[in-house]
Amino acid sequence: YFSADFPSVNAAGRVHRDLKPANLFVLTPEGGADLVKVVDFGIATVAEPTEGGRPASARLTVPGMVLGTAEYMSPEQAQGLKTDHRVDQYALGCILYEMLTGRVPHEGVTPAATMLKHITDKPVPPSKRRPSGVISAALDQIVARSMEVEPAARFPSMKELEQELLTINSP
Fold it and tell me: In sequence order, what are the beta bridge partners of 51?
């Protein structure tokens, strides 16, 4: 397994493309804070200059090929369109959603139906799905922004998403 902290993975130009709970490990160093490691870069790619509208690294895959796990797949990935680092941000939004509610944001009867929901349906805000009062409006907004259908509407980088999450717990 290859592991790395996630903001630096995207900053280095790597795109995981299959971020899901099974690919996240929490390590608890003795006397230290928990550390989340990202593993299984089996379908990862490196963001490179494009050639004819496709990343140069995509030459190893067939145009329109869909790789990933349906429950955490971004709309552009589900459609086999050009992807970048924001597919990982979308997947992280799905993971946060599941952590907060106990359910993935979109569930279909088949993987294809689930992918279609990512493209066409807006998820119920976590605070509405689990109305216990512990999910703040700020956290709802962060999850919603990371899961925007249009990649340009998401955070510019994983680092900026991280900074927004850190502000929730700041005094």
Answer: 54
What angle, rounded to 10 degrees, do the helices at 86-101 and 137-146 form? 140
- What is the 3-class SS of 93-105, one letter each residue? HHHHHHHHHCCCC
pLDDT tens readout for residues 13-56: 666 667 788 777 677 778 777 767 665 554 445 454 444 444 44
Instruction: Reply yes or no on whether 18 is catalytic.
Output: yes
Among 5, 18, 34, 121, the active-site one is 18
Is 143 in contact with 97 (CB distance < 8 Å)? yes
Containing 155, the helix (H) or strand (E) segment is none
The pTM (predicted TM-score) of the whole model is: 0.74
Among 63, 74, 136, residue whose Cα is nearest residue 105: 74
DSSP 27-76: E--TTS--EEEE---TT-EE---EETTEEGGGGGS-TT---S-GGG--HH
Token reading at 158:
């994983």
Of the chain, the end-to-end C-alpha distance in Å amounts to 37
